[in-house]
Amino acid sequence: MGTWPSALLPRIAAIVTLGVLTTATLTWAAEKKLTAPKPVQVSPVATQAAVIVVPDVRGQAYVFAKGILEDNGFAWRVSGGAGGYAANTVAGQSPAPGTHVVDTGAPLVGLTLKRNGRYAEKGTPDNVSPYPATEVRLAGAVAKTAAAAPAATPAPAAAPKPAAKPAAQPTTAVHAKPQRRTPDFAVPGAPKEPVKEMPLPQRARLLGVWLSSHRTRTAANVRYWLYQNAWIVTGAKFGWWHGAQALTVLVDVDRRAQSLWGIGARSQSSASAALAEVKARAK
């Protein structure tokens, strides 16, 4: 055979080079396909909603029922019967005591009150909690819904944030160690002082601390302040331990509220009158 013509050499070289590049590309693609990591199956994480139990406030004076509900993470509203005056008694509630509900932030409890004829209803009734209520979702209904739902493997998603709870206030977040408290005097039909609650003097002092950090007059602040006033004044009139001492502190706190917010004279007058009554009965 003769020698390859020199004119064909460049063409042959180009063909060989193209073949080499094509083979290398296919090999790289195959390796990438073979070594690509397998998709990871992410199992959905089951989330358990927090459950709280509705406390029993039936038979309680309204001022104390509010504190019990607040301490257990509930909001409230007077839904029937008498108005929301401190000494009126809780005749009924909904949901019923012992009901397990999902902690949606501040589930609403409706209260039916009956009038306490031993005490006059003065001023404006306080019929709702000082913070917004959230929906009531029965824990059993949520569990049944979750059990009936078909199994699925959805793409991972961020869990929704739970509803924010109302910020705890100093006068309800701090509790003294239960202790024996001898009543200052006896009042027929008056409820006993709940030893799980802080003593009246401590509640009054902490209300002063709270007022120092809540210098702006808002509807929520005023309602909370009135609620604490009602608790202290009513408890002192019931003859609870060291009521006169608590009222003395409260008079000063109400005077400061008048200076800060432009209101408080009526509450101060009520606390002063209660102080005189308690001192007279304690003799």
Structure notes:
- The structure is a single chain.
- Helix 5 (200-212) packs parallel to helix 7 (243-261), helix 6 (219-237) runs antiparallel to helix 7 (243-261) and helix 7 (243-261) packs antiparallel against helix 8 (265-282).
- The strands form two sheets. The chain has a three-stranded mixed sheet, with helices on one face. Strands 1-4 form a two-stranded antiparallel sheet.
- The protein has 283 residues and is mainly alpha-helical.
- The longest helix has 27 residues, at 9-35.
- Residues 26-36, 42-46, 157-168 and 171-176 have low confidence and may be disordered.
- The protein has helices spanning 9-35, 62-71, 139-148, 170-173, 200-212, 219-237, 243-261, 265-282; strands at residues 51-53, 75-81, 89-94, 100-102, 108-114.
- It starts with 8 loop residues before the first helix and ends with a helix.
Rg calc: 35 Å
Report the sheet with the most strands, covering strand number, pairing sense and barrel closure.
Answer: 3 strands, mixed
Number of separate domains: 2
| Uncertain segments | 26-36, 42-46, 157-168, 171-176
What structural class do you assign from the helix and strand content? mainly alpha
Give the mean pLDDT. 79
Number of helices: 8
Give the strand tally.
Answer: 5
Query: How would the global form be characterised?
Result: globular
What is the string of SSEs from the N terminus onward? HEHEEEEHHHHHH
Quaternary organization: single chain
The end-to-end distance, rounded to whole angstroms, is 139 Å
Residue fraction in strands: 5-15%
Strand numbers in spatial order across the main sheet: 2-5-3
Helix content: 40-55%
